[in-house]
Design goal:
Strand order of the largest sheet: 1-2
Largest sheet: 2 strands, antiparallel
Shape: globular
Radius of gyration: 15 Å
Order of helices and strands: HHEEHHHHHHH
Number of strands: 2
Helix content: 55-70%
């Protein structure tokens, strides 16, 4: 069992996007949908496909730092501020599994680095296209829609 969608949005995704000065309803919904698809909102946090809520591989994590964050020291400093003091230096990729806000920041920056036009916050197909491009190139938009229904829509209706 993962994290409740409303709790993940309210306590992790929204505060992280606000901290990064990147918040929008679409960004929040897109990250929630990505977490639903990648890990069923945290049901599986460490797999051979990647680490954490968003299943980010060590290679993608390193590339983001080397090819994107290295060229924006202020943003890099903000993201580094989310990481644990000593643990990050010893095992930076472990932060993707144990630190939800750090993982969320990295996931958002993977999206941002692609420089894609964001859809409306209620455009699930549009968000599914971005999810495929950024997180699962071999995935199907149907996977995004099904994960949304299973992990987010059903729990929203039950509340």
């Amino acid at each position: 069992m993962g994290i409740a969608a409303c709790d993940l949005s309210q306590h992790v995704i929204r505060p992280t996007l606000l901290y990064l000065q990147r918040h929008s309803a679409t960004a929040e919904a897109l990250l929630l949908g990505a977490a639903a698809c990648q890990s069923a909102l945290g049901s599986a946090l460490d797999t051979p496909q990647g680490h954490g809520l968003y299943r980010i591989s060590e290679q993608r994590h390193q590339r983001l730092w080397d090819r994107y964050l290295a060229f924006d020291p202020d943003l890099a400093s903000r993201v580094r501020g989310l990481a644990s003091q000593h643990a990050f230096l010893e095992a930076p990729h472990l932060e993707l599994t144990v630190n939800l806000r750090y993982a969320t920041a990295i996931a958002w920056l993977l999206i941002e680095a692609e420089q894609l036009q964001l859809p409306a916050a209620d455009d699930l197909l549009g968000m599914g296209r971005i999810w495929r491009r950024v997180f699962q190139p071999h995935g199907r938009q149907r996977d995004f829609l099904e994960a949304w229904q299973r992990c987010i829509a059903q729990t929203s209706q039950a509340a």
